[in-house]
Each structure stands twice: as C-alpha cells, then as structure tokens.
Design brief:
Bound molecules: 6-O-phosphono-beta-D-glucopyranose
GO molecular function: ATP binding; glucokinase activity
Number of helices: 14
EC number: 2.7.1.-
Number of strands: 13
Keywords: ATP-binding, Glycolysis, Kinase, Nucleotide-binding, Transferase
Helix content: 25-40%
Order of helices and strands: EEEHEHHEEEHEHEEEHHHHEHHHEHH
Pathway: Carbohydrate degradation; glycolysis; D-glyceraldehyde 3-phosphate and glycerone phosphate from D-glucose: step 1/4; Carbohydrate metabolism; hexose metabolism
Radius of gyration: 22 Å
Pfam families: Hexokinase_1, Hexokinase_2
C-alpha cells in the first residue's frame, strides 16, 4: 500500500484539465463540470503514444514532451476562443500510474518505474515538481492540484456518478486495483478518522506474492529477464523448428493486440494466426495443426491471467465483506485498460471466474463495468475538489 487518500465528494463547477500518463497511450483531457446536479457536462481529449526513446531517456526529455502536448492542447482551445473566467488559472490533475510515495495531494516521489519505462534521473524525484518545471519551460502556467494514479482516478470518476462503485481495477500494460475501505480497518492509519469513515486504498497489487500462488518456471524466466537483460533462461526449440527464431527471443515482441487477434481467429484455416506469426515473428508456413496449438496457448495464458485477476477482485470483495449475500449491497467494480477493453476472451473469462467464485446468487449484486477514460476524468474531478479557488466559490 503506497498511498492512502481521504475520499472527497464536493459539488464543483468549471473546467478542469488532466494529464494521464501510465498506460500505452498518454492523454490530455479537458473536463467541464456542471456542479452537483450537472455532473460531467463535457469532455474532450487528445491522445499520443510516448516515443520509445523517451521511455528510457531523461526526466527532462519525458516531461518536456508531456508539457508540449499540453501546451498544444491549450493553444488549440485559445483558437476556439475557449477561456477561463477572468483571474482564474487553468488547473491540472496529473494521473501518473507508477509506484509513488505520495507526500501530499499534489506531490509525490517516484519509487520505481514499471511498464517499460526506465528513466533513472526521475527516480526519487517529485513528479509534480518535474512536470511543473517542464510546464514553465514551455511557458504554461498551470498549477497541479492533484496527483493520482489510474486506479484512484478510475474509482473517483466512477463514484462521482455512481455511489455503488467501490472498487477500480486496471488491466492493461500494467495492473493495479484500488478500493474504498473503512478507515478503522486500516492499521497503518494513525491520523484522525475522516468524516465519511472511509478511505481509499491504492493496493499496488502488482507487488502481491503468496505461497498459495506458486511461481512457475515461466514466471521466473520473465522476472529474471525483466531485471537483468541478457540473463534470459528457459530457451527451448522444437515447436517452430530446430532453432529458436530470432524474433522469438525479443522480449514483449508479441503484443496483446496480436495475441488477441490470434485468439479470436474464427476462420477455418486460422489464417489470422498464420499471418500474425509471419508478420510479427517472421515464422512462415505454419501448419494448421500448429496454428491450433498457438490458439490453445493463447487460451491457457489468457485464462491464467484472467483467473488471477478475478481472484484479486474476490480478495477485495472478501476484505470489504461484500463477497456473500449477507451484505446485499450492490457493488460496482470499475475496470479499465486495453487488456480488459479489447480482449473479449480475457474479459469473458474474468467475469465468468468472478461469478464462479462468488456463486450465482451473490453474482447478481456484483457488477463489473467498463469505465472508459475514468482515470483522466477522476483526476479532473479530484482537481476540482482540491481547487485553489474552492473557497472563493462557496
Ligand atoms: C486508460 C486510462 O484508459 O487505461 C489510463 O485512462 C490507464 O489511466 C490505461 O493507465 C491502462 O490501459 P493500457 O492498456 O493503456 O495500459
């Protein structure tokens, strides 16, 4: 548990901005809030992928790039004559989905990078300060009012419109979950209890380990490889010929959309599988029999991942006492991320497993919902609830 935040719910109005960094794509959002009754009136966003060179470069280079995208977004709205009320600066929420030691609502130091990023001079730095410096370099005056991660943002965004949302899960480039806990049930918390009696827990569940979930040799192989490139083990040939194809040795070369396309191939000759193997891995002339095995492999890997994620959600429901009919309160689990959104077999397996785990009767009170862009909207909402101008508005 890296961060605990008191949940806030206030009625706010105005236009707020969010930067969302942490998945495959980076987003800049503008969200217009219409107060308690109005909800989210309007939202717009622009999206870009982070150039691979910046993922392993310097902190300045990454934050300059982000700041430039925001500057362009704001410049474009100047042309549309979109202005803030006089005397009021634009305010920004920063969704930064990496492990952070959060020191206040708008500051936090990066503990480590994940998801393919590796920018050593940013580790240990306050990511809000890094962003603010880059914004100043680009001449953008926009205070960061809230630093959140994608699970917290998704939870806040979901809960804004539906109080039954109590859990948020991201299943994409990385995975993590957050949920609403009774403050009294948090042994680490020694401060005053919040009025609502509730707090949000960011689980950072990617760090979870349990003797009940033994690591397989493939887990070890991936782990070793991720920490120490070059020490890859578990190399066996035979399936696609006597030698391991060069492309097969490249980490992460087979991306989720490729695997999903092969897994969902309904053609009788599995031509999508053949094509993907050729295009991505440069393996040609795969027999139908081998293509069928590839689909089965996709199924095994997907089912394992989906069942593990469902087990994680069950763990949260159990902790909240929402895993049985004793508490018939409806619980909505807000989910987001490319894996959940675009991989139908994965999503189906996760939802079926969850139903299987809680039982049919309880399953009717647990709803899994896709929360599209929830994290960016959530960051804008948290910005609104921590706005510099809040006092002036009351
Ligand atoms: C997006 C959210 O929809 O999903 C991000 O806005 C989140 O905050 C992302 O990090 C995760 O998905 P992926 O597939 O991009 O890693």
């Amino acid at each position: 548990m890296v961060r605990e935040e008191e949940e806030e719910s206030r009625s706010d109005e105005g236009v707020f901005y969010a930067l969302d960094l942490g998945g495959t794509n980076f987003r800049v959002l503008r969200v217009q809030l219409g107060g308690k009754a109005g909800g989210v009136v309007h939202q717009e966003f622009t999206e870009a992928s982070i150039p691979p060179a910046l993922m392993g470069g310097t902190s300045d280079a990454l934050f300059n790039y982000i700041a430039e995208k925001l500057a362009n977004f704001v410049a474009a709205e100047e042309e549309q004559k979109f202005h803030q009320p006089p005397g009021r600066q634009r305010e920004l929420g920063f969704t930064f989905s990496f492990p952070v030691m959060q020191t206040s609502i708008n500051s936090g130091t990066l503990i480590r990078w994940t998801k393919g990023f590796s920018i050593s001079d940013a580790v240990g730095q306050d990511v809000v300060a890094e962003l603010t410096k880059a914004l100043q370099r680009k001449g953008v005056e926009m205070p960061v009012a809230a630093l959140v991660n994608d699970t917290i943002g998704t939870l806040a965004g979901g809960r804004y419109t539906n109080k039954d949302v109590a859990v948020a899960v991201i299943l994409g480039t990385g995975t993590n979950a957050a949920y609403v806990e009774r403050a009294q049930a948090i042994p680490k918390w020694h401060g005053p209890l919040p009025k609502s009696g509730e707090m949000v827990i960011n689980m950072e569940w990617g760090n979870f380990r349990s003797l009940h979930l033994p690591l397989m040799e493939y887990d070890h192989a991936m782990d070793v490889e991720s920490l120490n490139p070059g020490e890859q083990i578990s190399e066996e040939a035979a399936f696609f010929g006597d030698e391991v194809h060069a492309k097969l040795k490249i980490s992460f070369i087979l991306r989720t959309p490729d695997m999903s396309a092969m897994h969902h191939d309904t053609s009788s000759d599995l031509r999508v599988v053949g094509q993907k193997l050729k295009d991505v891995l440069e393996i040609s002339n795969t027999s139908l029999k081998k293509s069928r095995i590839v689909v089965k492999l996709c199924n095994i890997v997907t089912a394992r991942g989906a069942r593990l994620a469902a087990a994680g959600v069950l763990g949260i429901l159990k902790k909240m006492g929402r895993d049985s009919l004793k508490d018939p309160q409806k619980t909505v689990v807000a989910m987001d991320g490319g894996l959940y959104e675009h991989y139908a077999e994965y999503r189906g397996c996760l939802e079926n497993t969850l139903r299987e785990l809680v039982g049919e009767e309880t399953a009717s009170s647990i709803v899994v919902e896709h929360s599209n862009d929830g994290s960016g909207i959530g960051a804008a909402l948290l910005t609104a609830s921590h706005s510099l101008y809040l006092k002036d508005k009351s």
